[in-house]
Amino acid sequence: MKTRVRLAPLALLLLLLLAGQSSARPRVMPPVPGSIPAPRVPRASAVAGEDFASAIVITSLPFSTTGTTCGFLNDVNFAGQCGDYLGPDVFYAFTAPSDMHVRALLCDDNQDSYVNVYEDDSTTTLACDSQPCSGGSAAFVRMRAGHTYYFVVEDFAWNPCNPYTLTLERQTEPPAGETMAEAIPIPALPFHTTGSTAGYGADYLLECVHQGSPDIVYTFTPSSPICVDITLCPSGYDSSVGVYENLDGSLIACDDDSCNDEFLSARLDAVSLHPGVTYFIVVSGWGGAFGSYVLDIDACAATAARRTTWGQLKSHYR
Ligand SMILES: [Ca+2]
Ligand SMILES: [Ca+2]
Ligand SMILES: [Ca+2]
């Protein structure tokens, strides 16, 4: 029975192997030479802060950091109100945990950096530099809960290497003029002021433009009946203007482009105001446009007199 003699040790060995396997831990396969993936070659977007996808995440406010645009690539070419944006750019991202107002302050020694603010993606710009910061700029932004805001430090192409300090501060109060509740009072006529709607929330949908744009509100309560002219004509963007009556009132006047200037600025002529009624003058824009404006409000007669130039007078006697 040669066969039995040879099979017995083999069966015993098989039993021992099965018993050993049942009590052993799951085995970890050793690495097989050649099966380990090759290290990835870093792409431009893998550099922290290079673009939207790799934006440096800001987890809480206040936030302050120093950096340099040296070595970064140009990833966005937004030709907005603030510069050419053809130089290198560095991206930071912050997701607002609640509705809030935030001020971004960018300072650099060479005065050639700007901060540009986007909401959620590259298509919605909210603000860019608006105020000097001893050689830098500041941008104010009203944030909505759950939305991500990108702060992009930009340089001009002709001076593409600047150290900077970026600071983000939360504002405890809305800025003056953000809504009717914070409307900026007009104490008397004539009234002249300048400002920028950059970063302000779009709170009022003027019927003559059909789309909300960042807006700033002024308020005026005349003591006697008066006719006023309201003009944004020297402003530097596609502005619009509207007049509301009382806090819960209706839009009584609205204009988009009546200045007929290159910026499509807005102008309202001969708006009748009644004594004791509070009016809200809303400086806004067309199609989301924002920018710097010059606002003048004056009595109709005064405006008419100003428009009667010496040249016009002479033409009557020719
Ligand atoms: Ca970049
Ligand atoms: Ca507003
Ligand atoms: Ca306009």
Strand elements, count: 19
Q: How much β-strand is present in the residues?
A: 35-45%
Mean model confidence by pLDDT: 79
Figure out the total of helices.
3
Number of self-contained structural domains: 2
- Please state the CA-atom Rg, rounded to the nearest Å: 32 Å
Labels describing this entry:
single chain, 318 residues, mainly beta, Jelly Rolls, 2 domains, five-stranded mixed beta sheet, five-stranded antiparallel beta sheet, elongated, disordered N terminus, binds calcium ion
Can you describe what's shown?
Helices cover 11% and strands 36% of the residues. Strands 1-3-9-5-6 form a five-stranded mixed β-sheet, with no helix packed on it. A five-stranded antiparallel β-sheet has the order 2-10-4-8-7, with no helix packed on it. Mean pLDDT is 79; it is low at 1-5 and 7-44. It folds into two domains: 47-171, Sandwich (Jelly Rolls); 180-307, Sandwich (Jelly Rolls). With 318 residues, the chain is mainly beta. It is built from three helices and 19 strands. The protein binds calcium ion (3 copies). One calcium ion is lined by residues 50-51, 72-73, 75, 88-89.
Helix and strand arrangement:
Layout: H1 2-23, E1 56-57, E2 63-68, E3 89-95, E4 100-108, E5 113-119, E6 125-127, E7 131-132, E8 137-143, E9 148-155, E10 163-171, E11 184-185, E12 191-196, E13 216-220, E14 226-231, E15 239-245, E16 251-255, E17 267-273, E18 279-285, E19 292-299, H2 300-307, H3 310-315
This protein binds calcium ion (3 copies).
Please outline what is shown here.
By secondary structure, the protein is mainly beta. It is 11% helix and 36% strand. A hairpin with a 5-residue loop joins strand 15 (239-245) and strand 16 (251-255).
